[in-house]
Design a protein that fits this description.
Elements lengths: L1 E3 L2 H6 L3 H4 L12 E3 L2 E5 L5 E6 L7 E7 L10 E2 L6 E2 L4 E7 L5 E7 L4 H12 L4 H18 L10
Antiparallel strand pairs: 1-2, 3-4, 4-5, 5-8, 6-7, 8-9
Helix pairs in contact: 3-4
The structure holds zinc ion.
Zinc ion binds next to strand 9 and helix 3.
Length: 157
């Protein structure tokens, strides 16, 4: 759990090159405590924003482009982050800028509703969602670190 004090703190989680693309939702109440992660989609679609924090780390923001799902809606796809399956229009490629020449992508729930899906699965299965949510945030951090070269612990910012 981490706290976002205001819009400046929210924007500061993103890399400078991403900050101008970030659209803060009008209905996002700040300050707020964030459990696990915060995600929202751009009102006009096509972009998804994520902020998470690993234990001992700093809030990390990622600005994703959504390319609109991985294909046939009837074919189930596996989300790489929450490991829940969704139809092709629910699980798709989100990509983010690594540098001027490269992008990196991950196949996940296109609205990043991973946490909600894990909670629903846990409720149905009668077990705690907590371990799954912690693994989810760890996978987000691994993507940030390995694919985007962002240090989740905040050094080198
Ligand atoms: Zn997911």
């Amino acid at each position: 759990m981490f706290k976002l004090d205001d819009e400046a703190a929210l924007l500061a989680a993103f890399r400078p090159k991403d900050q101008k693309q970030v659209e803060v939702p009008k209905d996002l109440a700040l300050p707020r405590l964030v459990h696990d992660y915060l995600a929202w989609t751009h009102p006009s679609g096509g972009r998804v924003f994520l902020i998470f924090q690993v234990p001992g780390g700093v809030p990390i923001g990622i600005a994703f482009d959504a390319d609109g799902g991985g294909g046939g809606a009837s074919v189930p796809h596996l989300c790489e982050w929450c490991h829940q399956t969704g139809a092709g229009n629910q699980v798709g490629l989100l990509s983010a800028t690594v540098n001027a020449k490269r992008r990196a992508g991950v196949h996940v729930c296109v609205d990043l509703s991973c946490g909600k899906k894990l909670e629903e699965a846990a409720d149905l299965g009668g077990y705690s969602a907590r371990p799954g949510l912690e693994k989810l945030v760890a996978r987000m951090a691994r993507f940030a670190e390995q694919a985007l070269q962002i240090d989740p612990l905040g050094s080198g910012r």
